[in-house]
Write a structure and sequence with these properties.
39% of the residues lie in helices and 28% in strands. The chain has 87 residues and is of the alpha+beta class.
């Protein structure tokens, strides 16, 4: 029973970052801002985001500000270290 509880807690903690994805402001290289949450860092140089209005789509990293590219890459690295893919 203890092993099951420990596994359940561990599994729940692994899912926390996925469910805790929060909306944040993303800025492009022209200074335009949208509010969206990061769903995934794709392997093709894009990220998958969801806007507050429900739109979901891929955005090329090259269109994002340097700060947001760094944020996306950091999110991908955190996810990769946990054994997943992307964010």
């Amino acid at each position: 029973m203890k092993r099951f509880s420990l596994r359940l807690i561990t599994f729940s903690l692994m899912l926390l970052p996925l469910s805790a994805a929060e909306f944040r402001q993303w800025k492009d290289t022209k200074g335009q801002v949208i509010e969206a949450k990061l769903l995934k860092v794709n392997g093709d140089g894009t990220i998958r985001i969801e806007r507050k209005d429900g739109w979901v789509g891929n955005v090329p990293l090259e269109l994002l500000s340097e700060e947001d590219r760094t944020y996306a890459k950091t999110a991908k690295n955190r996810r990769t270290r946990r054994g997943g893919q992307g964010a």
